[in-house]
Amino acid sequence: MRKEYFEVTWASLRCMVEPSFGERSVINHKDYFTNGNIVTSTAIGITETEVLTADGHSIPYDYLVIATGHKDPVSETKAGRLKEFQAAENEKIKSAQSILIVGGGPSGVKLAGEIAVDFPEKQVTLVHNGPRLLEFIGPKAADKTLKWFARKKVEVKLEQSVDLNSVTNSNGCKIYHTTAGETIQADCHFLCTGKPLASAWLKDTMLKNKLDDQGRLMVDEHLRVKGLNNIFAIGDITDIADINQGVAAQNHPLLAANNLKLLMGGKEGKMSSYKPGAAMAIVSLGRRDAVVQLPFGSMIGRFPGLIKSKDLFVGKARKDRGV
Ligand SMILES: Cc1cc2nc3c(=O)[nH]c(=O)nc-3n(C[C@H](O)[C@H](O)[C@H](O)COP(=O)(O)OP(=O)(O)OC[C@H]3O[C@@H](n4cnc5c(N)ncnc54)[C@H](O)[C@@H]3O)c2cc1C
């Protein structure tokens, strides 16, 4: 693994407004993973019998699980990550009067919600290139979120994108230009347009033909890389479509571990098949509210917020790891 820690990713937006939240949401692997070796280095290659790492290790394997998810150029150490929350992100928010958020997917919406709730005096503008916010959930939920932002005085601009190469300065303030010809004045911006998959390192390996055109590893129903007996892939790196990726990323390892055990015990025929979860997702909107997409409809406000928004499931993540 590239980093020495596990991070509750959706808590990182809270850490930007409250950096000390990271003390609990960033958990060193060595604090819970005690029965095995941890190599903190980037995997750069795979052969049929070994994984090669950037620091020169070559790690032999009989069975392999690949879970490199998305590329996230954040610090490799917990101390460094906490410093990023404090110095790079929180200071940037606190010292700005006006903030532009580019991208109206779950990260942009959550960040706008955190800032609007904790810093109501700041002018927040959210620009999204699609026709509605949160396009991965239903239009009604998106509409409710838009109205929530209107109540919080967050300005939302849809169907336009920001050209970050044409930012100009006027009286110490930045002027951002959008593809719809509008200008937005803001002291700083945050880019929330999604992160690339961390699969480029597989392109020159024996797995190059197992990547689909989006760079995802194609897996079978047992979460094995298609056509391979002893290599599993789990989480965001796979081509499984799940509306709630974070929950899927927690369910995949359970199924893969169980299947791995069966495979090693010579019971390959008993392996289970993965079934994507129900079409449910919950997006926090600051510390108390949330919007939830359920299979039969959507809801916004304090009630769905009670489920997630206060602790952001950080307590559960810690408990699951026994810390
Ligand atoms: C800001 C944010 C908010 C989110 N909010 C939600 C939410 O509210 N609900 C939800 O369901 N999902 C959410 N998600 C998505 C969720 O975090 C992901 O679905 C989940 O983290 C995927 O887990 P993963 O283990 O597959 O990949 P990742 O979490 O991306 O982990 C991959 C790990 O592999 C490491 N790595 C990458 N390349 C290499 C390499 N070559 N060698 C060694 N290590 C490598 C990375 O450093 C990383 O630690 C959010 C994501 C982000 C970024």
So what's the CATH class of the largest domain? Alpha Beta
The CATH homologous superfamily of the largest domain corresponds to FAD/NAD(P)-binding domain
Q: Work out the radius of gyration.
A: 21 Å
CATH architecture of the largest domain: 3-Layer(bba) Sandwich
Strand order of the largest sheet: 9-8-7-13
Number of domains: 2
The number of E-state strands comes to: 17
Strand percentage? 15-25%
Percentage of residues assigned to helices = 25-40%
Q: What number is the mean pLDDT? A: 95
Look at the helices and sheets and give the structural class. Answer: alpha/beta
The geometry reads as globular
Number of helices: 8
Strand and helix order: EHHEEEEEHEHEHEEEEEEHEEEHH
Unreliable parts: none
Give the distance, in angstroms, between the N- and C-terminal Cα atoms. Answer: 20 Å
- Per the CATH scheme, the topology name of the largest domain is FAD/NAD(P)-binding domain
Q: Report the sheet with the most strands, covering strand number, pairing sense and barrel closure.
A: 4 strands, parallel
For this entry, give a set of tags.
323 residues, alpha/beta, FAD/NAD(P)-binding domain, 2 domains, 4-stranded parallel β-sheet, 3-stranded antiparallel β-sheet, 8 helices, 17 strands, binds flavin-adenine dinucleotide
Report what the structure shows.
This protein has 323 residues and is α/β, with parallel strands linked by helices. It folds into two domains: 41-75 and 196-242 and 244-270, FAD/NAD(P)-binding domain, CATH 3.50.50.60; 78-195 and 280-320, FAD/NAD(P)-binding domain, CATH 3.50.50.60. Helices cover 27% and strands 23% of the residues. It has helices at 12-17, 22-25, 78-94, 106-118, 139-151, 245-264, 302-308, 314-320, and strands at residues 5-7, 26-28, 43-46, 50-53, 58-60, 64-66, 98-102, 123-127, 155-157, 162-170, 173-178, 183-186, 188-191, 231-233, 281-285, 289-294, 297-301. Bound molecules: flavin-adenine dinucleotide.
